[in-house]
Amino acid sequence: MPELKESLGHKYLQATKCAREAKDGQAPPAIQRTERWKTYPEAEVVELPRAWPQQGADLLSLLQQRRSQRSFVAESISLEELALLLWASQGITGQAGSYLFRTAPSAGALYPMETYLASQRVEGLAPGIYHFDVQGFRLERLSVLPPGQPLAEACLGQSFLAQAPVNFIWTAIFRRNMAKYGHRGLRYILLDAGHICQNLLLAAGFLGLGGCPVAAFFDEEVNGLLGVDGQEESVLYLASLGRKG
User: Fold this and answer.
1) Hey, how many other C-beta atoms are within 10 angstroms of the C-beta on 20?
2) How many CB atoms lie within 10 A of CB 104?
3) pTM
4) What are the pLDDT digits (tens) for 10-51?
């Protein structure tokens, strides 16, 4: 079925993949920088209050404290904590006909993202690569090999991935979305990834855990760890989680 590969979104994804053999000497395009802040000096200005309502103060605190965490103590997280993180990021929360709604929004309720785990120190869970079965709310073990170091090497040598008790890895099954939305579908898929990761980070903060999103990786090396083809399904995003070091 070559029609997916002919879409603009799929061509963009393939053209922007990071490969180890192409990294050395690969310079970004020479795009001139611009201002970090945009303002309208001639516009009427309305000053906003800086005191918040007390309702939802816990959520406001989580948002205030959210920072990328790249140092983890050598301590496991519990299976219950992992289950909450999985539910918060992609758990089912309702149903309308055949559509099963989740904690994070998705264009057309199509949910093209898949969640994999590179688990190393989760109580009651053997190390390995797992796939999250959303509908069954269970994990499927795909590999018995300790995944931390291979994953860190596939992510440009970022060592904190090898130290983290668990790494979330998100792929997209492009056809699931793009069969409806065509070329524009890739935009929606990338938005899905952002929604899911932010939910995960807020849930991690609720549990007293730290997390760090990761977008720097050699695409096909991570795809190889997961056993996905990189065409119909490919890695888009990761996040490391653990107790703060």
Assistant:
1) 12
2) 22
3) 0.90
4) 999 899 899 887 655 566 788 788 888 888 899 888 887 777
Domains, the chain, in order of start with CATH, read: 70-243 (3.40.109.10)
Structure token pair of residue 67:
């920072």
Q: What is the pLDDT of residue 227?
A: 96
Tokens 């899905």 belong to 192
Is there a contact between 187 and 180 (Cβ–Cβ < 8 Å)? no
The Cα angle at residue 221 between residues 20 and 126, in degrees rounded to 5: 140
